[in-house]
Design goal:
A hairpin with a 5-residue loop joins strand 4 and strand 5. The protein has 4 helices and 5 strands; from the N terminus they run αβαββαββα. It has about 110 residues and is of the alpha+beta class. The chain has one domain: Alpha-Beta Plaits, CATH 3.30.70. About 20% of the residues are buried. It has a 5-stranded antiparallel beta sheet with strand order 2-3-1-4-5. This is Heavy-metal-associated domain-containing protein. Keywords: Signal.
Length: about 110
C-alpha cells in the first residue's frame, strides 16, 4: 500500500514539473508584410533560429502570420523581434507577445 502511494506521489511530481516546464515559454505572434513564397518563409525562420531556444515555429504565407515560442527566462523583447524581422528583409506589421506569466505586450500599430 505504501509503495502505491509513493509511486503516485512521484508520478504527480513529475507531471507538475513537466507542466511547469511547458508553461515557461512566451508565445509570439507577428504579422509580417512581404512574404510571398515558401523560400521567403524559410529565410525568415532561419533568421529567427539565431535566437537559441526558439520552438513551435509556424508561418502562414497567405496571411503573413508568423508564430513561435521562446523560453521566458531569456526575455525576448518587442524591439529584438522587430529588428530581426527587418534584418530578414521584411516589415513587421504587428507584434504580440504573450508572456508565460500572462502579461501581454503589443507593438504600437496593434495598440491603435
Amino acid at each position: 500500500m505504501k509503495t502505491k502511494i509513493i509511486i503516485m506521489l512521484i508520478l504527480g511530481l513529475v507531471s507538475v514539473s513537466t507542466i511547469q516546464a511547458q508553461k515557461q515559454r512566451d508565445d509570439f505572434k507577428i504579422q509580417v508584410d512581404g512574404l510571398g513564397c515558401p523560400f521567403c518563409a524559410y529565410g525568415l525562420e532561419k533568421k529567427f533560429k539565431e535566437f537559441k531556444g526558439i520552438k513551435n515555429v509556424a508561418i502562414d504565407i497567405e496571411t503573413g502570420d508568423f508564430t513561435f515560442t521562446f523560453p521566458s527566462d531569456k526575455k525576448l523583447t518587442l524591439l529584438q523581434v522587430k529588428t530581426q524581422v527587418e534584418e530578414a528583409g521584411y516589415t513587421p506589421v504587428t507584434i504580440k507577445i504573450t508572456r508565460a506569466n500572462g502579461e501581454i505586450e503589443v507593438s504600437e500599430k496593434e495598440k491603435e
